[in-house]
Every structure is written in structure tokens, then in C-alpha cells.
Amino acid sequence: MTRPIRVVLADDQHLVRSAFAMLISATPGMEIVGEAADGREAVALARDARADLVVMDIRMPVLDGIEATRLIAAEEDLAGVRVLVLTTYDTDEHIIEALRAGASGFLVKDTRPADLLEAIRTVAAGEALLSPGPTARLIERVVKLPDARTAPGAQPEALRELSPREREVLGLVARGLNNTEIAETLSLSPLTAKTHVSRIMGKLGARDRAQLVVLAYESGLIVPGAS
């Protein structure tokens, strides 16, 4: 029997935590192993409760969700812990910082219950919660800002080491395609597409597909708004 997904909830609003906890606890294959009211508690619980995933609010006291995510991503003992960030609006520019910090995706707080549960399953399985919709639009908007960390076209050295095929695959990942869709687009087997993605992540030191998307846009490999 497969063990349930162990979830930590981190949100400074008690009612929000309680609502999510009731939903998740009532779902087969999931269990709540801790609730945190701030980012510092979230990091401690992720470690002590041996969590698989943290549902993390961005705006919290003591330590916000971005810094908490960064600490989780940087700690070797927490390498298997995934972070799904929550925000009130899908235009929150802090989301891009959370993705840079190591989050595997995001949801707005008024998402449908079924979508939250599916997001937890997706992220816990090691996939990023990405689509050609809100995430891509958000990244496109934020990388246009003057404080974007990488100048357009200024590609990191690691990106230059990718083969032409790997750069092509990375571009499709950045546009929100999954492995099956990449395979169909490039006439590859799904296994080959998955292998390419894994190698790209290894070469670029990316934690997951979410960071690949951010890197592709910030490096200028993908131009915001381009088809």
C-alpha cells in the first residue's frame, strides 16, 4: 500500500488553514502532518514531520513564504520536500520570487477544492504545476520589469552548454508543454522527452520544471509574448 502524501499547511489565517486541513484530511492518500502560522514554523515542521509537501502562503509574519521556501530548497535534508505556494491573486509579483526560491508551482486561494487536491498530487509526484495559462502569463509580465535579474539575451554559461535539441526541449517546457506534448511536437518517444528534461535540469542545476521556466524567460531563450 502506497503511503499517503504528508502535507504541511502554512498560513497565518487560522480559518484558511482549517478549511484546507478538513479538505485534505478527508481525501484518501493524503494526510496533514502539521500546521504553521509563519514561515519559520513551516520550515521546522517540514523537517520534523518528514513532510512530502508544504502548502505555503506567501505573506506571513516572522518569516514570509518566499524565504521559507528558499530555506527548504537549500537544506540538503529537505531535498525531497516540495513547495506549493498560495497567493490571493495570480498577479502577485512575489510569486516569481517564490518560483526562483524553489517553489514547484502556485495556486490562488480561491481555487476549487478539486484543483487544490490535484495540485498537491502533481507537485508531490515531483512535477511542476505549470500550464500555458496563469503561470506563463505571470512570468512573461514580471521578466519585463526593470529589476529582472538577468538582462534579456544574457544567457548563463550553463545554458550555452545545452545541445540544440536540449535548447529546443527547454523552450517547449517554458511554454508549458508536458513530456507527452513535447514528444509529440518533436516526434520523440515520451521516455526520450523525459530524459532530455532530466538532463537539462541536471546541467542547469534546476530543482524542477518551474525553475526551468523561469530560467528560460529570464535568460532570453523565450521572448515574452512571442508565439
UniProtKB/TrEMBL annotation:
GO biological process, one term: regulation of DNA-templated transcription
A GO term for molecular function: DNA binding
Domain HTH luxR-type: 155-220
Keywords: DNA-binding, Phosphoprotein, Transcription, Transcription regulation
Keyword Transcription included in the entry's annotation: yes
Residues where 4-aspartylphosphate is found: D57
Domain Response regulatory: 6-124
InterPro entries linked to this entry: CheY-like_superfamily, NreC/VraR/RcsB-like_REC, Sig_transdc_resp-reg_receiver, Tscrpt_reg_LuxR_C, WalR-like
PANTHER family: TRANSCRIPTIONAL REGULATORY PROTEIN NARL-RELATED (PTHR43214:SF24), TWO-COMPONENT RESPONSE REGULATOR (PTHR43214)
Protein name, entry field: Response regulator protein VraR
Gene: vraR_1
